[in-house]
Write a structure and sequence with these properties.
The structure holds two protein chains of two kinds.
Chain A lengths: L3 E4 L2 E4 L5 E7 L5 E8 L3 E10 L2 E4 L6 E3 L9 E3 L8 E8 L11 E2 L3 E5 L1
Parallel strand pairs in A: 2-11
Antiparallel strand pairs in A: 1-3, 3-8, 4-5, 4-9, 5-6, 7-8, 9-10, 9-11
Chain B lengths: L3 E2 L4 E5 L4 E7 L6 E7 L5 E8 L4 E4 L2 E6 L4 E6 L8 E8 L5 E3 L3 E6 L1
Parallel strand pairs in B: 2-11
Antiparallel strand pairs in B: 1-3, 3-8, 4-5, 4-9, 6-7, 7-8, 9-10, 9-11
Classes of the chains: A mainly beta, B mainly beta.
Chain lengths: ~120, ~110
């Protein structure tokens, strides 16, 4: 079955440590997204990528970095510069949104990041 | 800047009741509107997508409507069941290459 796989499901970060969250999709989608979800805040966009080797900052990119070397993979690194990283992180994909979109967005099951 | 509001933030109903969830938005220049369901600790599942040119979409007991002129969408759930308990989110795509989400309505259906 096609879908989005996020790993790990739970992740713990030590002070000053960088951690990387994995997101892999086998839907052959061009566009991929990273969201952060906090209680009462809704989903906030961190980074997105419309095509391989290209990505853009979302609304809360500070303290995060991404890469898009392969179409199916869009890993997110939470750096030590992100002072409040505890949250639920969701990866999503879409066939492509250039010029508009008429396809639903697909989501992975999320990674919950906590501070040790 | 597009803003999406969902009221109420939480709703509790008895099993079997028909109910309506509301979503309002400030900018009517949208390509589509999507309704999602999120179970605790899980990702989002797409329920319905309404194109800008459409007025409504139906899937089983769910019906979503879109009124761009008034900046509103509703999700109607018929004959609610305990399994419908979840958080429901609406999101709009307005051509900025990204979805804008509401904060969701947490629905509890009591047996």
């Amino acid at each position: 079955d096609g879908g989005i796989t996020q790993s790990p499901k739970y992740l713990f970060r030590k002070e000053g440590q960088n951690v990387t969250l994995s997101c892999e999709q086998n839907l052959n989608h061009d566009a991929m997204y990273w969201y952060r979800q906090d209680p009462g805040q809704g989903l906030r966009l961190i980074y997105y990528s419309q095509i391989v080797n290209d990505f853009q900052k979302g609304d809360i990119a500070e303290g995060y970095s991404v890469s898009r070397e392969k179409k199916e993979s869009f890993p997110l690194t939470v750096t030590s510069a992100q002072k409040n990283p505890t949250a639920f992180y969701l990866c999503a994909s879409n066939p492509g949104t250039r010029g508009g979109s008429n396809q639903p967005q697909h989501f992975g099951d999320g990674t919950r990041l906590s501070i040790l | 800047k597009q803003e999406v509001t969902q009221i109420p933030a939480a709703l509790s109903v008895p099993e079997g009741e028909n109910l309506v969830l509301n979503c309002s938005f400030t900018d009517s220049a949208i390509y589509n509107l999507q309704w999602f369901r999120q179970d605790p600790g899980k990702g989002l599942t797409s329920l319905l997508l309404i194109q800008s040119s459409q007025r409504e979409q139906t899937s089983g007991r769910l019906n979503a409507s879109l009124d761009k002129s008034s900046g509103r969408s509703t999700l109607y759930i018929a004959a609610s069941q305990p399994g419908d308990s979840a958080t429901y989110l609406c999101a709009l795509f307005g051509g900025s290459e990204k979805l804008v989400f509401g904060k969701g309505t947490k629905l509890t259906v009591n047996p």
